[in-house]
Amino acid sequence: MHPMVKPALRRAWRDRQTVQFGMTSAHAVTVGPVDTATGSFLALLDGTRGLPLLREEGRVMGLPEGRVDELVARLTSAGLIDDATAGGAQADALRGRAEAFDRLRPDLAALSVVHCEPGGAARRLAARRAMRVQVRGAGRVGATIASVLAAGGVGQVEVLDGGCTEPWDITPGGLGPESVGARRDVAARQLVRRATPGRPPRAAEAAGTSGAGEPGLSLVIVAPRDGAAAYAPDPFAAERWLRSGTPHLYA
Question: Which of 96, 126, 186, 236: CA 20 to 30 A from 114?
Fold first, then answer.
């Protein structure tokens, strides 16, 4: 284990012996009393050291025998500690792709306060890479959703639509002015590629196997651009998703 105080939980001293992790009432935890040596030791919980090295550092700083393990256990039970090496093989593979992993650090930080167990955030972030999401509609809403999903690490984001991009399809975070006149689906796929952190996974890699081919749909998002479908979705289109148990969302 390489203990790390969760980066999303900002640290502030309430007084000389009480430290608070996190600022919002939903996640804030106070720890005390904390002496000077223990307060200095907290800065070492950054994920770069395993427990044996932390014990050695603690002894050098004058912490009593067993204090390091006690402190790590206490902070872990309070939901404040993540493990910088946990999450399984997929999480290790994601960490090995430094550029993509750095892009996803805000997502990792947010997930860590929702899923408190050490390694839980990394495991779920890595699982996104195996997901295949289909967005039906590349207007303002659909294109923006597609780009956000891709930027959040979803491995395969497909966009289906027809026609060409119109000036009223342009929006911040979605299709840009350079897309006007281009096919909507092509422009949206280019947007997804630009938003994706690093190289998208191959189909076999996303499926988690060397020969299973394309993974099934994890989610379908229906984002009609105009017409009555934007207000009253066609129920017949959803029949096959209902039969197969495919989650689908109307936006």
Answer: 96
